[in-house]
Amino acid sequence: MLFPKKVKYRRLQRKRTNPKKKRNASRGTELNFGVYGIKAMTPARIRSNQIEASRRVISRMMGKTGRIWIRIFPDRPWTQKAAEVGMGKGKGDPQGFEAVVLPGRILFEISGVPEETARSAMLKAGKKLPVKTKFVMK
User: Fold this and answer.
1) What are 85-128's pLDDT values in tens digits?
2) C-alpha to C-alpha distance for 100 and 40, rounded to whole angstroms
3) Which residues neighbour 76 within 8 Å (Cβ) at sequence distance 6 or greater?
């Protein structure tokens, strides 16, 4: 699974978002490496195990042909308190890493496979993610 080699702070605060304000991604919105891609249509925090599950589905569908690019990286730690622990007593321990994704962000890119294969692989990969996704191509 993906995780950073080193982080500056063990526990980060979650950024507050205004649900009335529509924020879209300003970078990573176009295909740069591959011919086909999958784009996020809703905001979410995607955990490293969800990224890995999507990557496995894509690589399994593509076989030995083609190339995959992962355009997001889980660099924010997420925490969780232990079971049956009362309120207070500080913040929980880090459990893993997540990537913050805004609408319009390209998540995965692939090339070297036919369009039907790419479309079915990306649709299956989108089912593994907590965002609504859209298949895009150059």
Assistant:
1) 999 989 999 999 999 999 999 999 999 999 999 999 999 999 99
2) 11
3) 12, 45, 97, 98, 99, 100
Maximum Cα–Cα distance across the chain = 55
Model confidence pTM above 0.90: yes
CATH of the domain at 101: 3.90.1170.10
Residue 132: domain span: 43-77+96-137
SS3 39: strand
Query: Which secondary structure element, helix H or strand E, spans residue 61, and what is its range?
Result: helix 48-62
Residue type, 117: T
If one counts the domains in the chain, the total is: 1
The secondary structure of residue 20, as a DSSP letter, is T
* Strand, coil or helix: 131: coil
